[in-house]
């Protein structure tokens, strides 16, 4: 199998007229001994090393190639989208964890705090002190997040830690 791949890759390399490759085929042990793993195609590796002037365009039936100029792709972020602080929680049978993340549009989320677990510690107080330590979070947003945390803790207490009981 390996020798047939080496021979076909040698013929692939020699077909490029603009290059003068020096290819030596030596016997070596197989790279993969597992029956389930498939080796990477040698053709693919060598084809990526070809000079741009040696490559020719292939036409594929069913694909319109009339506009061959590549269109730039960019991620559109709405100008009114701002980064926001989000309350995250982990709902468990005996504990509930509360934490803060900052969601930045176009970039993902950044953790702002670890998870604070209730009833082991007073997660609400720890959350409040974390919010107060971040001066860029407004008082209004802080109150909203703490009210959400209160609602989640109360819901967790009423359900006894079971999400399905309503």
UniProtKB/TrEMBL annotation:
An annotated Gene Ontology molecular function: structural constituent of ribosome
Ribonucleoprotein listed as a keyword: yes
A GO CC term attached to the entry: ribonucleoprotein complex
The keyword Amino-acid biosynthesis is assigned to this record: no
GO biological process: translation
Record keywords: Ribonucleoprotein, Ribosomal protein
InterPro entries, alphabetized: PSRP-3/Ycf65_sf, Ribosomal_cS23-like
The family this protein is said to belong to: Belongs to the chloroplast-specific ribosomal protein cS23 family.
Protein name as it appears in the record: Uncharacterized protein
Species whose genome carries this gene: Capsella rubella
Phylogenetic placement of the source organism: Eukaryota, Viridiplantae, Streptophyta, Embryophyta, Tracheophyta
């Amino acid at each position: 199998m390996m020798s047939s791949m080496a021979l076909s890759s040698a013929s692939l390399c020699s077909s490029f007229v603009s290059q003068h490759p020096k290819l030596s085929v030596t016997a070596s042990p197989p790279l993969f001994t597992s029956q389930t793993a498939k080796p990477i195609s040698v053709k693919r590796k060598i084809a990526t090393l070809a000079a741009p002037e040696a490559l020719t365009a292939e036409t594929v039936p069913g694909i319109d190639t009339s506009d061959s100029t590549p269109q730039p792709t960019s991620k559109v972020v709405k100008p009114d989208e701002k980064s926001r602080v989000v309350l995250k929680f982990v709902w468990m049978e005996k504990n509930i964890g509360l934490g803060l993340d900052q969601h930045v549009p176009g970039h993902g989320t950044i953790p702002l705090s670890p998870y604070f677990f209730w009833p082991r510690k007073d997660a609400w107080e720890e959350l409040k002190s974390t919010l107060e330590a971040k001066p860029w979070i407004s008082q209004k947003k802080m109150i909203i997040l703490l009210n959400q945390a209160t609602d989640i803790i109360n819901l967790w207490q009423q359900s006894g830690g079971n999400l399905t009981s309503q």
